[in-house]
Amino acid sequence: FKPFTPIDKDNKSNKHYLTGFTHNLRNLFTSSGRLCGLDIGSSSLKIAELKKAKGGYTLDNFVFKVIPPVINVDEAQRNQFIIDTLKEAKREGKINAQAIFLSLKGSEVSILSLTLPKISNRRDLKSAIILELKKQIPFEPKDTVVDFQVANETPDRAGPKLLVIAAVAQRKAIEAKIDILRQAGLQPQGI
Q1: Quick one: pLDDT at residue 32?
Q2: Terminal CA-CA length for the chain
Q3: What are the C-alpha distances in Å from 188 to residues 14, 34, 181?
Q4: DSSP state of 22
Q5: H-assigned helices in 2-54
Q6: ∠ CA(112), CA(11), CA(119), 5° rounding?
Q7: Where residue 78 falls among pLDDT bands split at 50, 70, 90?
Q8: I need a labelling partner for 73 at 20 to 30 A (CA). Which of 12, 23, 57, 101 fits?
Q9: What is the dihedral of CA 2, 11, 170, 142, to 10 degrees?
Q10: What crossing angle do the helices spanning 171-183 and 75-91 adopt, rounded to 10°?
């Protein structure tokens, strides 16, 4: 796999931390040899930290915290609980990685398979994908973060076709999670 980059690199509103949905595992680790994954679920918070080891990777730290139902109904209280939990995990040495990667829950992301005519120029391919996504997603592309990977090229009587896998997420869901991380003193590196 190649690292993904945001589809709309030229748009100044795209942030550098929106680095994509899929990465080559070897390229994710920082010089410290650590990587932290964060899953903010509907009822729990999970943090897993991996450490590079000889011949692979090991799970170095893991935090699982249930979000109390009584505060889960109030977004401000819920967010503060998550921020406090992240700060505590950092203070206790359970988050040592410089690279923090967020997960998105299924309702926050759509994965689409598109078949398009072969387009060699990446900028033109990006435009074609956005046009196709406008037909398939229920919100404006400008309100999303889109990433894609060409999965396959196949011959066709009308000309070669590209199988493109596109991931689409609502920008505001991503930015809300990034804001929580920043308030906890952590810097997101990718999604």
Answers
A1: 62
A2: 15
A3: 14, 14, 7
A4: -
A5: 25-28
A6: 50
A7: very high
A8: 101
A9: -130
A10: 50
